[in-house]
């Protein structure tokens, strides 16, 4: 809900119909795999015969994206532009490391160089909004100071204070400036951004941005959809599935003496977070990081481009066996009983931005019951269970229905 | 990471403090390339076994100090006090909390109570 412009009922209705149609076209595929309808060449083609029986002969188009594992940042980097565009546009996987969401650093630099930026990227819109809010706060502080001075003067003279209008978020309008509001930048076609780079005379801009995938996102893509190859950073050779599993399990920093334990424990942070990530992705939600709202994940119904996230997820690990928690080399956050103040704080932060808080309890199997040998393959994930508790604050005086 | 242009500046600090390498790399790139800070320099704070960054925001005069850390770390008030000491007692310090998806959240920390500006 913007305090600057009058709220017009959510982000969706602020976009024009053409913009929404454009978004629907570009972000049409929810996953990197695309299912193409089968082609019926003749009446007796195999595809047609299959469809008579009730089986689909749809072809699957796999983009086969490539990424590099980076141990320092514990993530997978996708550096080539074709793959990062596909992974972002089909399912909103990853985040540009120099941008808010989609890798737009190069576009912003090109915009900045051109004298008249025709379009604004989301970062530039954010800067404009912040500048307006700063101006609003200055105006409000000045009005409050004027009201106080007026009240003092009136008291000294023994008369009624003249009313001073103090701007509120709903009534304040930004001072009309010379340049009209720039339209938000439409997602550039691949050809356009390349030709803009060539037109650049001054210094050829090298795109130093990459798309960064978390380990959970990368594992989801390569294990479930088989559309990502991960290269070893030292040899630049594709890693096998078991090598990647081993690497992801040992990526989290722990003291060197306890490092052997990482692959023998079910409470590995990668596993616990992956259980929650997989749970929501499999249900069709777009899952992104929630650090900005003090939570672990944000759930989007279709994607960040369409509407703000409706749900904020906090992952709470639950140990089936308390002994495992005592002997753990990992200190999982939220594994201990939380306090009311913490819960109220997180709930309040998210209520302010109209998100519903979901506590996701991930049960970690006991090492006494389930053999740690299972950890050598993703089969161990079947032993994790995920339950949700949805939280809303109830105010008896106001909520009577 | 070693193919990135920023690696040249940071390589000695990355090998010296490997635990804080990812956070330093992400924060340095964010400040230099995305936020376009000027006069950016790396300062070692051995008390916290990492490096801090000091520079200016675009169109601003003040030198600001940024201490990168990772979301998986747990910090203490002693740790924060050490950063203030090792940086020579600046009026405030920005804590850059890095996540694995490359989001960075900055928190401004001051030693003592500070009234909000407006």
From TrEMBL, chain A:
tRNA processing in keyword set: yes
Any one GO BP annotation for this protein: tRNA-type intron splice site recognition and cleavage
GO terms for cellular component: cytoplasm; tRNA-intron endonuclease complex
Region (Disordered): 1-20, 166-205
The entry's keywords: Lyase, tRNA processing
Skewed-composition ranges (Acidic residues): 188-204
Function (record text): Constitutes one of the two catalytic subunit of the tRNA-splicing endonuclease complex, a complex responsible for identification and cleavage of the splice sites in pre-tRNA. It cleaves pre-tRNA at the 5'- and 3'-splice sites to release the intron. The products are an intron and two tRNA half-molecules bearing 2',3'-cyclic phosphate and 5'-OH termini. There are no conserved sequences at the splice sites, but the intron is invariably located at the same site in the gene, placing the splice sites an invariant distance from the constant structural features of the tRNA body.
Family of this protein: Belongs to the tRNA-intron endonuclease family.
Protein name: tRNA-splicing endonuclease subunit Sen2
Organism the protein comes from: Trametes coccinea (strain BRFM310) (Pycnoporus coccineus)
UniProtKB/TrEMBL annotation, chain B:
Cellular-component GO terms for this entry: nucleus
Molecular function terms, GO-annotated: nucleic acid binding
Keyword annotations from UniProtKB, A to Z: tRNA processing
InterPro entries, sorted: tRNA-endonuc_su_Sen15, tRNA_endonuc-like_dom_sf, tRNA_intron_Endo_cat-like_sf
Top-level taxon of the source organism: Eukaryota
Domain annotation tRNA-splicing endonuclease subunit Sen15: ranges: 26-116
SUPFAM superfamilies in UniProt: tRNA-intron endonuclease catalytic domain-like
Listed GO biological process terms: tRNA splicing, via endonucleolytic cleavage and ligation
Keyword tRNA processing among UniProt keywords: yes
Keyword Repeat carried by entry: no
Family label: Belongs to the SEN15 family.
Protein name, entry field: tRNA-splicing endonuclease subunit Sen15 domain-containing protein
Organism of derivation: Trametes coccinea (strain BRFM310)
């Amino acid at each position: 809900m913007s305090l600057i412009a009058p709220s017009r009922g959510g982000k969706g209705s602020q976009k024009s119909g053409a913009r929404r149609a454009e978004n629907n076209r570009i972000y049409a595929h929810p996953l990197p795999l695309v299912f193409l309808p089968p082609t019926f060449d003749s009446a007796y083609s195999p595809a047609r015969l299959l469809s008579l029986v009730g089986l689909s002969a749809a072809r699957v188009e796999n983009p086969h994206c490539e990424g590099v594992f980076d141990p320092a940042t514990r993530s997978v980097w996708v550096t080539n532009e074709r793959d990062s565009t596909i992974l972002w546009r089909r399912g909103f996987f990853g985040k540009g490391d120099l941008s808010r969401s989609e890798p737009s650093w190069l576009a912003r630099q090109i915009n900045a160089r051109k004298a008249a930026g025709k379009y604004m990227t989301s970062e530039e819109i954010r800067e404009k909004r912040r500048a307006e809010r700063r101006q609003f706060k200055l105006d409000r502080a000045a009005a409050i100071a004027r009201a106080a001075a007026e009240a003092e003067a009136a008291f000294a003279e023994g008369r009624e204070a003249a009313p001073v209008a103090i701007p509120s978020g709903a009534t304040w309008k930004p001072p009309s400036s010379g340049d009209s509001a720039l339209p938000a930048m439409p997602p550039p076609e691949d050809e356009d951004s390349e030709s803009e780079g060539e037109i650049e005379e001054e210094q050829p801009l090298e795109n130093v941005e990459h798309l960064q995938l978390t380990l959970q996102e990368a594992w989801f893509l390569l294990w479930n959809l088989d559309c990502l190859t991960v290269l070893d950073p030292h040899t630049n050779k594709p890693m096998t599935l078991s090598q990647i599993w081993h690497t992801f399990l040992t990526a989290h920093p722990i003291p060197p003496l306890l490092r052997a334990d990482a692959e023998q424990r079910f409470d590995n942070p990668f596993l616990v977070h992956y259980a929650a990530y997989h749970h929501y992705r499999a249900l069709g939600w777009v899952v992104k990081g929630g650090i900005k709202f003090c939570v672990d994940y944000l759930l989007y119904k279709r994607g960040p481009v369409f509407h703000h996230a409706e749900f904020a997820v906090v992952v709470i690990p639950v140990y089936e066996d308390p002994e495992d928690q005592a002997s753990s080399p990992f200190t999982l956050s939220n594994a201990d009983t939380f306090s009311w103040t913490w819960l109220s704080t997180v709930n309040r932060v998210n209520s302010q931005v109209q998100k519903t808080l979901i506590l996701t309890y991930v049960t970690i199997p006991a090492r006494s019951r389930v053999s740690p040998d299972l950890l050598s393959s993703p089969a161990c994930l079947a032993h994790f269970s995920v339950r949700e508790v949805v939280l809303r604050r109830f105010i008896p005086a106001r909520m009577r229905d | 990471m070693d193919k990135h242009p920023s690696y040249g500046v940071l390589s000695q600090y990355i090998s010296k403090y490997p635990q804080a390498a990812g956070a330093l790399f992400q924060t340095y790139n964010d400040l230099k390339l995305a936020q376009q800070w000027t006069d950016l320099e790396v300062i070692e704070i051995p008390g916290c076994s990492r490096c801090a960054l000091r520079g200016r925001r675009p169109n601003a005069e003040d030198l600001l100090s940024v201490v990168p850390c990772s979301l998986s770390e747990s910090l203490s008030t002693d740790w924060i006090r050490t950063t203030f000491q090792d940086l020579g007692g600046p009026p405030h310090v920005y804590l850059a909390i890095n996540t694995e998806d490359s989001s960075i959240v900055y928190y401004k920390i001051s030693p003592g109570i500070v009234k909000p500006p407006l």
